[in-house]
Each structure stands twice: as C-alpha cells, then as structure tokens.
Design a protein that fits this description.
Length: 134
C-alpha cells in the first residue's frame, strides 16, 4: 500500500493543474463566443490587431463589417474581434446653475476658436479615442 501512495500523489499533483487549466480555457472560449454573438451595429470594438472600429453590419455568421472611419467600411472575420469598448465619456461637468452654464459655453467657444487657429497651421495628429488613456 505504501508503494502506491507516492505515484498516486504525483498523478494528483500533475492532474489537478491540467483539469483547472482546461476549465479556464473552456470558460474563456465561451466568453469569446458570447461576445461575438452579441455584436450589434453601433457597438465600438477592438480587433485582435488593435484596430478600433464601429460595427456597421453583423448579419453574417462568419464575417462582420466594421466602420474604421466615416464612410470606410471593411469586412473582418468575427473571430478577429477581441473586445467591446465603452465610449470614453467627456470629462465636462454637468451643471444646472446658469452662471456655471455661461462659463462652460464661453470656454467651449474659446476652445472652438483655438481649434480653428490650430487647423490653419497645418496637419494635426488625432488624439487617442479609446480606453480613456491620457
């Protein structure tokens, strides 16, 4: 009996991580399948290659149309979609007081004027759109 204890213990030490790893992999595959099935037009997504886009058409079972810029629609395999992205919310504070509202409107006008003068200078680099990274 003592001769079987060590090999049995070694088999358990090897088998438990294998079983746990398999369960985790199955769970991840199920989550990815659920994500791909839940895609709808208008959703913001990131592909496995890091491209941010908006879902334009998700009616096909194997492919999905992604709009990467205004009027530019490309066709991708559904498996290329890595995750849904929540749009970044503007950090402007909402205010009900009229004095604060006027201040926000004045600053918005000033920002618009500043952007117009910057646009006249030459080409500009677009800021990042996703994940709220600053």
């Amino acid at each position: 009996m003592e001769g079987l204890f060590l090999p049995l213990l070694l088999m358990l030490v090897v088998a438990i991580p294998l079983v746990m790893g398999t369960r985790k992999q199955k769970r991840m595959m199920a989550q990815q399948q659920e994500l791909q099935n839940s895609l709808a037009p208008g959703d913001r997504v990131m592909t496995t290659s890091g491209l941010y886009a908006t879902v334009a058409d998700a009616s096909d079972e194997t492919t999905i149309d992604l709009e990467i810029a205004d009027g530019v629609v490309t066709t991708w395999l559904r498996q290329a979609v890595r995750e849904k992205i929540n749009p970044v919310a503007d950090d402007e504070p909402a205010s009900d007081e009229e004095g604060d509202t006027a201040l926000v409107e004045d600053s918005t006008v000033a920002e618009a004027d500043e952007k117009e003068t910057e646009a006249a200078k030459g080409p500009q680099v677009a800021p990042p759109l996703e994940h709220g990274k600053k």
